Amino acid sequence: MALEIKNLTVAVEGKEIVKGVSLFFHPGKVHALMGPNGSGKSTLALALAGHPRYTITSGKIVLDGKEITLAKPEERAKARLFLSFQYPATVAGVTVSNFLRTAVNSLREVRGEKSYGVMDFHALLKEKMLQLKIDASFAGRSLNEGFSGGEKKRMEILQLLMLEPKYAILDEPDSGLDVDAIKIVAEGITLLRKKTNMSIIVITHYHKFMDFLEPDAVSVMKEGKIIISGGREIAEKIEKEGFENVESGSEDGGRVVSGSG
Question: Which residues of the chain fall short of a pLDDT of 70?
């Protein structure tokens, strides 16, 4: 069981952005996808989620042995693939609690499981919020309305704990955050690693995030291609020398392996 990208090429409005990327993600591992701005990281994430603006021109996406290259976004979500957007939407008038209850019960229905009643759901939500050290009042606020950058990112981690996807793609969860907020996000991801068997793919261009995250594997993307893959030492090299001095190479002949499985 794994999420695998095979020689994927993605175009936006006819322009090729992702150029033959192959990656392999095992459950229970944290894999960091690093690279400078404009390298194609977010394009890859949105293509994996099935965004209609991003056209897969060649290659395959295989989730748990089933090809989902042409699947609709909702089919990918039902298969428990989750994308955390870099800039999450604000939904005035819809509380965090109601949003999460609707989302969780929709997924439970797809899996043939009984929906949560109001009391049972609130008990579960309270438990997850305590794990993330989120105040109870958070549940009654409108989704992302007036949220700070750190609160928006905590909301994303809370969604992950509630929805329990198999594969979570986090697009720059450290974007625009101060060091304290980055640490909170990293702690949330670490909690997910401990509490679930989720495969977590973290997209970032900020090497300092790796100090808190401690990923199992790191890949670097430049100009639409994976130029090197390996362990955390790659992030340490980037911190010292910058992306421009990272040379092409791989520990596994270009096939990225997130841990031993």
Answer: 247-261
